[in-house]
Input
Amino acid sequence: MSITLIIVIITAIVSFIAFSNQKIIDDFIFDPPAVTNRNQWYRFFSAALIHGDMGHLIFNMLSFYSFGEYVEANFKYLFGPMGPLLYVALYVISQFVCLLPTYFKNKDNYYYKSLGASGAISAVIFAGIFLSPLQKIGIMFIPIGIPGFIFGFIYLAITAYLDKKGAGHINHSAHLFGALAGVILLIIFGYLFSPYDVLQNFIYQIKGFNS
Output
């Protein structure tokens, strides 16, 4: 069983239970003042195990599984025996990093709460895009695929705009910083643990686009 599938199963089980158990939601949700005043740093990670509703859970897990299996396989190829460990590290570290800006902005805001694994999932998605930037990605309601690197730039631009605007109840900041963390960690892992230059490969593929 793949690590990706294990994460999906664990997240789904915890989320299902939390749907009917308010105490789990209260204990797991990302609550910045609880971190500030009670040192509950675990909330950076536990928040990824719960979701707002079934639609939120299904969308996140489908997105994660679609890219995660590919990224996990590539990590095994690029990093050998260390691949699975580094794949988990990418997910876990990105989950923490993606919420840091949210924490510093809301560390004393008792009205702010956040939940879901979107930041860590964005990291995995963008790691996949970085590994295969020309792979086309389909977008809902658009019948044609868009090369991954173009989709990535559009996504980052829209997410940054929505974050600045403060649109809706979605933590756009977590999406943005999760995506950036995924790419940066992939480059660092490649530099430290593999002879394969992931950054150079990305540039090479982009240069070959429509050439």
Summary: The chain is about 70% helix and 5% strand.
